[in-house]
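Chapter summary example.
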Amino acid sequence: MDERRIIHEITPLMGKDVLYIADRHKKEFTYPIHNHEVFELNFVEHAPGVRRIVGDSNEIIGEYDLVLITSPDLEHVWEQNTCTSEDIREVTVQFDLGMSEDSLFGRNPFMSVRKMMNEARKGICFPISAIMKVYKEIDTLSSIQDGFYAVMQFMTILYELSKCDGIRTLASSSYAKVAVQDDSRRILKVKNFIAQNYMDELRLGQLADIAGMSPSAFSRFFKLHTGRNLSDYIIDIRLGYAARLLVDTSRSVSEISFDCGFNNLSNFNRIFKRKKSCSPTEFRENYHKTRIIV
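The structure predicted for these 294 residues follows.
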């Protein structure tokens, strides 16, 4: 089985270019799953029923969809699925902006944008309230003739989006290979331990000791701090690694299950299907059938 079937897209952006804007109307999505070096903001309207895949996230979109991706390794695709719209509009903005701390984006006025870009390494989608806030700017972006003003309008879009509530990450940290982060040192120590030992049995008492707390206090602290139960967090981390192995290797589902800390294959299949809405085998097939070698 070939393990490299994702198109690595060659962006039209050249040397000193900043933006590439594609504004198109179409009846269907046909482009296969891919990734690319540059950042991308993708807006879709009038396409309910389309399936959006970003890393190990698999969702059916509604009338409007807006996604930001800033990782060169994060695969993504919009598939036709059950969409029957005769007039789908898609506005794709690919852009190349340096986000280092010593660049302009490291300065105070851009901190919210920089934070959003960092989150978007896992892919982020925006709620309808955020989309409507920048709809006019997205709608008119491709009609701006002056490059400077186009960049300024796009910067406004990014800034307004960075201030919105309800932004949601798509791919899991473990799938996207993004280092875990947390404001709490205790929680971060535990998260790092889980990331390094997810394949082993993890006991509450063991993790509570790492945090220097009693098991019951740590469980409450973790839920209060992260909004998630510890057991759910561990399952999601393991599923992220499992999904990445399903995509990147030809190892059997059984091998992957045990290598990612699931000691029961049927339990792995059941949890995977509940979380991903498909079996591990179907997940692998869905990726492979939409990939080609270039």
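To summarize the output: The radius of gyration is 20 Å.
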